[in-house]
Amino acid sequence: MNNLFRVSFTRLTVLLSFFISISCAKNSELVSYDAETLENSLSDEYDLGNLESSIEITESDELSLLVPDISLYSSIVVDREKITEYEYFYEMKEFNVPIVMTPRVERYLKYFTEKIPHVTQKWLDRANKYMYVVEDIFLEAELPSDLVALAFTESGFNNHAISRVGATGMWQFMPSTGRMYGMKNDFWVDERRDFEISSRSAARFLSDLYKRFDDWFLALAAYNAGPGRIHRASVKHKTDDFFKIASTRTLALETRDYVPKFIALLIIYKNYLKLGFEAPTTAPLFFSKVDIDSQVNLFWLAEKLDIKFEDMVELNPSLKVGITPPVKSYSLRVPYGRDKEVIDLLSKTDKAERLQYTLVNAKGGSNIKSIAKKYDVSLSRLKNINCLDGNTILQSKPLLLPISKYSNSNMDKGISKLLNKYTPKYYVVRRGDTFIAIAHKHGMKTTSLKRLNPRIGNVHKLRIGQKIVIKSR
Q1: Is 371 within 8 Å of 398 (Cβ atoms)?
Q2: Which CATH architecture has domain 425-471?
Q3: Which of 298, 341, 353, 460 could lock onto 322 through a cystine, CB 3.0 to 4.6 A?
Q4: Three-state secondary structure readout of 40-85
Q5: In angstroms, rounded to a whole number, what is the distance separating the alpha carbons of residues 471 and 473?
Q6: For the residues 408-421, what does the mean pLDDT come to?
Q7: CATH number of this structure's domain 356-415, picked from the four choices 3.40.50.620, 3.30.420.10, 3.30.70.20, 3.10.350.10
Q8: Of 61-65, 355-359, 363-367, which has the strongest mean pLDDT?
Q9: Hey, where are the domains in the chain?
Q10: In the predicted model, is pLDDT for residue 135 greater than 90?
């Protein structure tokens, strides 16, 4: 570890010792880190919002890091100039967003560099694939390029990250915010996972937040908690100083820590070699684009191009089932320099071969047996491919029916595996169940449950064995 970095943490130790002497009488609780729990909380399936909840508070003396008292914030913002005189081992000119050094920032520097360096290294490796794309998008939007580090805070640059509340993608957009910024989310695509589309939306969102608050710390906090919540907190405390607001308990701890995490991860990103990390092992993700006018099955295309299906998915992460959507024109990413080869291939094949299946838009209430009979498809195979477990379709959805000419059991399994991730979940009505009780059991409002089950007429007359959709795609 760089000697200067050790010096900075020596200062942190002195500073913490001072606060320990003040607060030990009030708070003898120590933080105990469970390495496995922490690593799981920072896995690809969750965001950094889980960090605090995964820290176990105990009475043991196993760890030397005291639980930071919230007064640490207020005690250092009294003299604001001392914060901005960042005299450790970086110069302000290296950054184009504000850098403020607080004990909380140092805590996260220590955490990401010493507690979970393997996770941080993984993020640095993954980020190298997309960083040039994101930086270009942010510069085009006239945003400070250092804001790209926010994707570390959000997801570790993981296009498939899903938070505990359903935020998705590299930039962790909630469904409502995603729709607000024009990102599609349907049976075929979730554009929150597309590294270009979502980055453009994130750039617009950040621009809008900065225009509203005229302060990057408040704008970043609003990205996490929502602009309304940050505005109300600012009005309540009559200040536009994020750190003064963060010295109170008005905002959730996740939001109070959001800016310190961002600052710590930005410092690490811009100085990772100094901090003991390795140069990224991955190469930037270069690609070409082909505009296609009919659906293309990526399993088929990958086989024709003699590349891995996973490589096509990495280039096109928004595609849910490995098939492009049924739109007039779709921009498909292909390995760099192979666009002409793909164009030539598509020109020599018909729509059926490109898709490999017959597509049927089945309405809710449709009988699966009659569909299988009409298209001369095995009922069991139809169910397996489309992840169906009954003979009635409860919600309208597209069905993929195999074409005997292009029969491919491995492709069927691949499609089924992808579809299973987005297949609606059902609850089977039991004796004594009521619609309201089912909704509350699954943490839903009755109105939300009703929207998922439009075919249920009278919710007061449920039948034993009846299937209720409790989670949609």
Answers
A1: no
A2: Roll (3.10)
A3: 298
A4: HHCCCCCCHHHCHHHCEEECCCCCCCECCCCHHHHHHHCCHHHHHC
A5: 7
A6: 92
A7: 3.10.350.10
A8: 355-359
A9: 38-50+74-270, 286-355, 356-415, 425-471
A10: yes
pLDDT for 297 equals 98
> Does this chain's domain 38-50+74-270 share its CATH topology with 356-415?
no
**Cβ atoms of 287 and 315 closer than 8 Å:** yes
Q: Hey, what amino acid is at 460?
A: H
3-class SS at 145? Answer: helix
Q: What one-character-per-residue DSSP string does 82-138 give?
A: HHH---SS--GGG-SS-----HHHHHHHHIIIIISHHHHHHHHHHHHHHHHHHHHHH
Residue-wise pLDDT tens digits, 270-297: 999 999 999 999 999 999 999 999 999 9
Taking residues 253-270, report their average pLDDT. 96
Asked whether the beta carbons of 259 and 104 are under 8 A apart, the reply is: no
Q: State percent of the chain over pLDDT 90.
A: 66
The correct CATH number of 38-50+74-270 out of 3.40.50.1010, 1.10.530.10, 1.10.260.40, 3.90.105.20 is 1.10.530.10
Q: Which residue would you say has higher pLDDT here, 104 or 24?
A: 104
Contact between 67 and 147 under an 8 Å Cβ cutoff? The reply is no
Residue 473: the pLDDT is 57
- Identify the residue whose tokens are 């995964």: 54
Distance, CA of 284 to CA of 153 (rounded, Å): 20
Rounded to whole angstroms, the Cα distance separating 378 from 69 reads: 65
Asked if the model's pLDDT at residue 168 lies above 60, the reply is yes
Q: How far apart are CA 237 and CA 244, in angstroms?
A: 8
pLDDT value, residue 451: 82
Choose, from 39, 85, 154, 278, the residue flagged as catalytic. 154
In the residue annotation, 154 being an active-site residue is answered as: yes
CA angle 413, 418, 422 (to 5 degrees): 135
Cβ neighbours of residue 278 under 8 Å, at least 6 residues apart? 121
Identify the three-state secondary structure at position 428.
strand
Task: Note every long-range contact of 373-379, with CB atoms under 8 Å and residues 24 or more positions apart, other chains counting.
Answer: 375/401, 377/401, 377/402
Top pLDDT among 232 and 30 is at 232
What percent of the chain has a predicted confidence (pLDDT) above 70? 80
